[in-house]
Specification:
Structural class: alpha/beta
Number of strands: 14
Order of helices and strands: HEHHEHHEHEEHEEHHEHHEHHEHEEEHE
Number of helices: 15
Shape: globular
Distance between the termini: 41 Å
InterPro entries: UPF0210
Family: Belongs to the UPF0210 family.
Strand content: 15-25%
Helix content: 40-55%
CATH architecture of the largest domain: Alpha-Beta Barrel
Organism: Butyrivibrio hungatei
Protein name: UPF0210 protein SAMN02910451_02010
Subunit structure: Homodimer.
Oligomer: single chain
Number of domains: 2
């Protein structure tokens, strides 16, 4: 039972501390849309998404008004398109036609993004998988709302290095294809290891084949709430620090649970999971880096940062699972550079490097996220960075991801502006020593020994 004190606390978190429901995401299965005729397939996809999600935005807005809780984004995720389009698509241009259909229906129903232009290739690639991957630069340059994700590794199967090498090229090609917009297409493309089936956050959301026909997943975010809570226990020991984070995460998750249940009931779609991720925005006071500063490091990247982030991530999850039985997705803390003003400040101060960010990804929710790099970075170097991050995920049995943006025509010391939630970013230097011989070997890095569990 929610009491008056909780209501007052929640109102303060919303009004003063940037608490929001970051997204309501409806996952939609497109498996029943499959057809060998491309035009029929596109029609089936459009109709299924429209009929399923036509009331999503209206319902989210109603809940936001009635409960006084900001719901920032309404999104749709679909079955990985490589699975859906395999029978009909014979060329990469065919797959790009499906991307246009997704973009068209997303605009019609009014959502912010649609995810699922995806392929799952952690062990090998089908012809359809390869065609979809090769179509990504074309698809993302011709659409506005479509997001793409490729899962190239897992703890169970190892890392598909052929796919990793290919993605290095695809990211560069996507940057070139969208260079008129500062290579913005790469901001909608993410490479995963151990990608979850129920992630509501873009660009990595897709509707996993283990999910129901339709599902509602909600992502809640509250970095500002956590920072404010920690200001009240400044100088206290780690036990009090951890308890404060855990209790705050519990309260934030309760807000998400309320919204998720209400959206599920009104839309007639089953409730899936709450993703309690401290996802920052460029707004002042809505920063994960500021939480790390409050814990006691001068800037993100200073000695102690990885330990502080590990503590934060663990306590957020502990608080979340006490508030809901269905915490999932990527729950924890995100550390995107462009979307977090504190991270941007740390980069500009020289405290935070790409190598330190990689170390931090061992204990955060995702990985190297929204990082702008020089446009002349080699595709093999990008593939090497992806391989490193995938290895962290594979060995540590966690989700990791890479969303790098090689900004064509810009170099270290310059800044790129993406706008909105994507923010802006200083272009970070990348280690220039070659990994060509490594990433060009081909084949697959085997799964680790601890993967043999059955």
């Amino acid at each position: 039972m929610i009491n008056t004190k909780e209501v007052i606390e929640t109102n303060e978190m919303i009004e003063k501390e940037n608490l929001d429901v970051r997204t309501i995401t409806m996952g939609i299965s497109l498996l029943d849309c499959i057809d060998s005729n491309l035009e029929t397939l596109k029609k089936n996809i459009y109709n299924k998404i429209y009929e399923s999600a036509k009331d999503l935005v209206k319902t989210g807005d109603q809940i936001s008004r009635e409960f006084g809780i900001p719901i920032v984004n309404k999104r749709v995720s679909v079955t990985p398109i490589a699975l859906v389009g395999g029978a009909a698509c014979k060329t990469k241009e065919d797959f790009a036609e499906i991307a246009k259909t997704l973009d068209e229906v997303a605009k019609k129903i009014g959502v912010n993004f649609i995810g699922g232009y995806s392929a799952l290739v952690s062990k090998g690639m089908t012809q359809a998988d390869r065609l979809l991957i090769e179509s990504i630069p074309l698809a993302l340059s011709q659409t506005d709302l479509v997001c793409s994700s490729i899962n190239v590794g897992s703890t169970k199967t190892g890392i598909n290095m052929d796919a990793v090498r290919l993605m290095g090229t695809i990211i560069k090609d996507t940057a070139e294809a969208t260079k008129e917009n500062d290579s913005l297409g790469c901001a909608k493309l993410v490479v995963f290891c151990n990608a979850p089936d129920d992630n509501p956050f873009m660009a990595g959301a897709f509707h996993g084949v283990t999910e129901a026909d339709r599902i509602i997943n909600v992502g809640v975010s509250g970095p500002g709430v956590v920072k404010t809570a920690l200001e009240k226990v400044r100088g206290e020991n780690f036990e009090i620090l951890c308890e404060t984070i855990k209790k705050t995460a519990f309260k934030v998750t309760r807000v998400g649970q309320l919204v998720a249940r209400e959206a599920s009931k009104r839309l007639g779609v089953p409730f899936g999971i709450i993703d309690l991720s401290l996802a920052p925005t460029p707004a002042i006071g809505d920063s994960v880096a500021d939480i790390l500063h409050e814990i006691g490091v001068e800037h993100a990247g200073a000695p102690g940062t990885t330990a502080a982030l590990a503590l934060l991530n663990d306590q957020v999850k502990k608080g979340g699972v006490m508030a809901s039985s269905y915490v999932g997705g990527l729950s924890g803390a995100f550390i995107p550079v462009s979307e977090d003003q504190g991270m941007i400040n740390a980069v500009e101060a020289g405290a935070l490097t790409l190598e330190k960010l990689e170390a931090m990804t061992c204990v955060c929710s995702v990985g190297l996220d929204m990082i702008a790099i020089p446009g002349d970075t080699k595709d093999t170097t990008i593939a090497g960075v992806i391989a490193d991050e995938m290895a962290i995920g594979m060995i540590n049995q966690k989700t990791t991801a890479v969303r790098l943006i090689p900004v064509i025509g810009k170099g270290v010391g310059e800044t790129v502006e993406f706008g909105g939630l994507l923010g802006y970013a200083p272009i970070m230097p990348v280690n220039g020593f070659s990994c060509d011989a490594f990433v060009n070997r081909g084949g697959r890095i085997p799964a680790p020994v601890h993967s043999f569990k059955n």
